[in-house]
Amino acid sequence: MIILGVYVVFSLVITPIQYNYYLAIKELEDKQKKKGKTQAQMYEEMSFEEDYLHYNAQSNAFFLLSNIFAAIYYRMKHPKHK
Question: How does DSSP assign 1-37, residue by residue?
């Protein structure tokens, strides 16, 4: 139970960092869409280092909860207008 509590606190502390990362990726995706490129093309054009950092930031189990918090916070601050 203590480990779970530490993980939740860690996730809350890391959330602002993950949110900034999430925001940067969304901005990059928007720029690529304006150029007519797909998300797959964007990731193909990334350097190995950028691709590896992206993979680690998104798939690391330690960051899972903070990624979820950051995505929820992003969707609350940037609702889609249809």
Answer: -HHHHHHHHHHHHHHHHHHHHHHHHHHHHHHHHHTT-
The angle that helices 2-34 and 64-77 make with each other, rounded to 10 degrees, is 50
| Token couple for 51 | 């691709």
pLDDT at 15 over 90: yes
User: For the whole model, what pTM was predicted?
Assistant: 0.74
Which residues in 48-79 are b (16+ Cβ under 10 Å) and which e?
eeeeeeeeebeeeeebebbbebbeebbeeeee
Per the model's pLDDT, the better-predicted residue between 7 and 39 turns out to be: 7
Contact call for residues 29 and 39 (beta carbons, < 8 A): yes
The Cα–Cα gap between 24 and 22 comes to: 5
